[in-house]
Amino acid sequence: MITKIGVLTSGGDAPGMNAAIRGVTRYAIEQGLSVTGIIRGYEGLLSHEIMPLDRRDVGGIIHRGGTMLRTARCLEFMEEKTQKEAAAYIRENDIDALVVIGGDGSMRGAQALSKQGIPTIVIPGTIDNDMDGTEYTIGFDTTVNTVLQCVNRIRDTAYSHDRVAVIEVMGRHAGFIALHAGLAAGAEAVLVPEHDVSLEDLCMHLNESHRMGKMSSIVIVAEGAMKGSDVYDYIKEHTYLEPNLTVLGYVQRGGSPTARDAIMASLFSEKAIDCLLSGTYNCVIGQIGETIAATPYTEAPRYHFPLDENMYRLVHQLGR
Ligand SMILES: Nc1ncnc2c1ncn2[C@@H]1O[C@H](COP(=O)(O)OP(=O)(O)OP(=O)(O)O)[C@@H](O)[C@H]1O
Ligand SMILES: O=P(O)(O)OC[C@H]1O[C@](O)(CO)[C@@H](O)[C@@H]1O
Ligand SMILES: [Mg+2]
């Protein structure tokens, strides 16, 4: 029977992680469990940094970006020896199950711990929206809206100076941020890791739009597709157009969560605790269609939600 849970955040921080820490803590306490917070993700399990969490400890954080528990990318945790040490520490502290809030890498970490006999459950928290077992990850909506606001500002300059604004956004392995922000901002083109990038085609596309009377354009590049600076250089060398470059960087990851992210964080938290209480674990919580589901790690790849090809086509058709 589960009486005490641990909770940690891992990987890149994402807006809404704090709302999830609050949701997990308060809902678990409501159900009669006690809660331990682990500091700095899997690193905290190795450096033994933990703290008890009560209702008041998670007060005043629902609207804050980042994560009050801190987070880390812990490379040591890739080794089985380290995973065994972490599992032993969890047992020593009488933690019966662990809630991991993080992205796809963090989910692999949770799966590794479950192989060591620790019941785990994952709440998807990453701005990248690139996890199996869910159509939505906490933080994505906030980031897309942040990028949109930035692009709208950059557009003013691009328009006024007749320039091609090249904007690099995050997404090491996935183009969701670029695609969604691109469609919302009316970009001329988006470059994403899921599609081969031809800078020759891009320049033809931009030149053609220019001939049709379009004096300024927006090109959004996911960092995993190509470096924004390479796109800038190519346009400068191969066209008569005038590009400018903005690498958005970490402004995309901070900030207060949108209503959608704070709501999803709360709903995912409730589902995670309900699952643990009913003996369902080693699962990723996720939104699948209209439902909030719990999918075993081993089955999550069956629920892979790729980039929406219709949206990708539409960006390029509407952007000219
Ligand atoms: N195969 C694995 N086995 C064990 N642990 C892993 C594995 N992959 C990742 N992890 C752990 O999860 C941590 C976070 O992973 P990663 O850096 O990929 O971020 P993420 O959770 O995908 O979030 P984001 O992509 O939003 O930054 C890693 O630093 C590592 O501690
Ligand atoms: O510099 P860091 O913290 O490793 O984060 C960069 C990476 O994290 C992510 O933002 C996801 O949080 C990726 O898109 C990005 O490549
Ligand atoms: Mg990831």
TrEMBL record:
Family, similarity comment: Belongs to the phosphofructokinase type A (PFKA) family. ATP-dependent PFK group I subfamily. Prokaryotic clade 'B1' sub-subfamily.
Stored NCBIfam families: PFKA_ATP, PRK03202.1
Protein name: ATP-dependent 6-phosphofructokinase
Keyword presence, Metal-binding: yes
UniProt domain Phosphofructokinase: residue ranges: 4-276
Role of this protein: Catalyzes the phosphorylation of D-fructose 6-phosphate to fructose 1,6-bisphosphate by ATP, the first committing step of glycolysis.
Residue numbers annotated as active site: D128
Keyword vocabulary terms for this entry: Allosteric enzyme, ATP-binding, Cytoplasm, Glycolysis, Kinase, Magnesium, Metal-binding, Nucleotide-binding, Transferase
Compartments it resides in: Cytoplasm
Binding site for ADP: R22, G23, V24, T25, R26, R155, G186, A187, E188, K214, M215, S216
